[in-house]
Amino acid sequence: MMKQFLEIKEAHPEDIVFFRMGDFYEMFFEDAQRAAEILDITLTARDGGNDVKVPMAGVPYHAAEGYIQTLVEAGYRVAICEQMSDPAQAKGLVEREVVRIVTPGARMDAGVMESKQDNFAAALAGTTRHIGLAVADISTGYFACVEVRGQNALEEILSECARLGVIECCLGPELATPLHDPLADLGVVNFPDVASYLFDEKEARDRLKQHFEVIDLAGFGCDDKPAAVTAAGVLLEYLRETQRGAVGSLTTLRTYHLEDALLIDPVARRTLE
User: Fold this and answer.
1) What angle do CA 251, 257, 260 make, to 5 degrees?
2) Residues 6 or more apart in contact with residue 273 via CB below 8 angstroms
3) Under a CB-based contact definition with an 8 Å cutoff, are residues 153 and 130 in contact?
4) What distances in angstroms separate CA 199 from CA 33, 35, 87, 191, one per listed residue?
5) Which DSSP state fits 175?
6) Residue-wise pLDDT tens digits, 37-83
7) 5-43: pLDDT as tens digits
8) How far from 88 is each of 3, 4, 91, 146, 189, CA to CA, in Å?
9) Is the per-residue pLDDT at 172 higher than 80?
10) CA distance 273 to 40
11) Are 193 and 241 in contact (CB under 8 A)?
12) Which ranges of the chain does DSSP label H, i.e. alpha helix?
């Protein structure tokens, strides 16, 4: 069983793995140590073989959402690993697999569903003078993108991220350095490590067309906006990888334009609030 856990953990090295064992989600090794401190739960140990004691901590599965929310609010991602077969019927080891990854921008617990605030995950693609922004909230099915060009593109995108309340963001290779720290100052708590090849515009476009089952993106208003298309395609793939089926709630893509609105910078916004 510990070998099974380690194989799953190897596939999710940056996540805290909630490993289902009967009526509990158990955490092991560094996951258990981090979670025990954050959640204020008991850190114990189990026999790991060869006289090795493995740090362990657990929470009841029926009360797990509250603990998951606490970890996510602390900036961690949580990989939910479920038992895929009935332990009473299983011969040998119970099959387990990760069915969902809970991230700051992709939560669907009751607290988020009842909240009046959106829960946006985002992706930014392009260059410092040609930026595409895509945002999505899988709890409501909202999926939108915008493209900004010009010497003030960075400032305008930061203002838009502040307005939306983005809390996690996938950054393209050319935007990671100029935008990471300013976005963190705005409250973004998670910057997923997304493979650079996902930011290929053609592949991103193909992903969107396949998802929406269309031959082009003209009907969504973004066919001529390569940076916005790239950001939307990256975000769709990130949510598909982490949410395992929840992207079905994203049934359309809205394209909007910042010039249609009065822009307020983050400092002015905070002051007005």
Assistant:
1) 125
2) none
3) yes
4) 35, 33, 42, 15
5) T
6) 999 999 998 876 777 788 999 999 888 888 998 998 888 889 999 98
7) 999 999 888 899 999 998 999 999 999 999 999 999 999
8) 21, 19, 8, 51, 41
9) yes
10) 33
11) no
12) 2-11, 29-39, 64-73, 110-114, 153-164, 176-185, 201-212, 226-243, 266-272
225, 145 Cβ separation under 8 angstroms: yes
Contact 59, 67 (CB under 8 A): yes
pLDDT of residue 237 exceeding 80, the answer is yes
| Paired strand residues for 100 | 80
Q: For residues 35 and 193, what is the distance between their CA atoms, to the nearest angstrom?
A: 21
Query: In whole angstroms, what is the distance from residue 144 CA to residue 127 CA?
Result: 19
| Predicted confidence (pLDDT) per residue in 83-132, tens digit | 887 777 777 788 888 888 888 766 544 444 344 456 789 999 999 999 99
Cβ(133)–Cβ(157) below 8 Å: yes
- CA 126 from centroid of its chain's CA atoms: 20
271 contact partners, CB below 8 Å, separation of at least 6: none
- What pairing do the DSSP bridges indicate for beta strands 96-102 and 24-28? unpaired
- To which residue do tokens 């606490």 refer? 70
> pTM surpassing 0.85?
no
> Is 191 exposed, middle or buried, given 0-12, 13-18 or 19+ CB atoms closer than 10 A?
middle
CA 249 to chain centre: 15
Lookup result for tokens 């929470």: 59
CA max distance for the chain? 66
Q: Which residues pair with 60 in a beta bridge?
A: 24
User: 81: number of CA atoms within 13 Å, CB side?
Assistant: 24
CA 49, 50, 53, 55 torsion-angle sign: negative
Tallying the residues shown for the chain, one arrives at 273
